[in-house]
Amino acid sequence: MTDAPDERPALIASELRTMFRHLKRQLQQHSNRGELTPSQAAVVVQIDAVGPATASALARAEGMRPQSMRSILSALDEMGLIETQPDPDDGRQTLVSLSATGAHWLAEGRAARQDWLSRRLAATLSETEQQEVARALKTLSRALDI
After folding, report:
1. How far apart are CA 146 and CA 139, in angstroms?
2. Which CA distances in Å does 28 have to 6, 25, 32?
3. pLDDT value of position 91
4. Contact at 8 Å (CB) between 94 and 55?
5. Domains annotated on the chain, with CATH
6. Which ranges of the chain would DSSP assign to H, the alpha helix?
7. pLDDT tens by residue, 51-96
8. Cα(126)–Cα(20) distance, rounded to whole angstroms?
9. How far is C-alpha 14 from the geometric centre of its chain's CA atoms?
């Protein structure tokens, strides 16, 4: 990049967004997410991240209407990916959590994506390039505060 220094961050940001969008698509192709809609997969990931939650809390977290969330949860329940139980703090509420099948589905998809990406990096990058990527990831993590 030979652009002016004040343009460099915007160009890097644009390239990163494009690269991550392509990486996300490739990772989705190398997982079992094809069995679920993107919304259903997002809800499974959300439940895994937050633990047992009410349908309304999940709807808020995903930025959707409670009716839409109920439809998604109904489909996930039919597939055996979630289970429900009464909220011990408020018997009027129901908590949704991943079933053993749901946890297995999620772990299997993550393992498939990890395996594909690991093999791809090993097949296309030299040891030196892999070290460069590792250093760049540390720098990006610091820049993004993650």
Report:
1. 10
2. 35, 5, 8
3. 82
4. yes
5. 26-144 (1.10.10.10)
6. 8-29, 38-50, 55-62, 66-78, 100-124, 127-144
7. 999 999 999 999 999 999 999 999 999 999 999 999 888 888 999 9
8. 21
9. 21
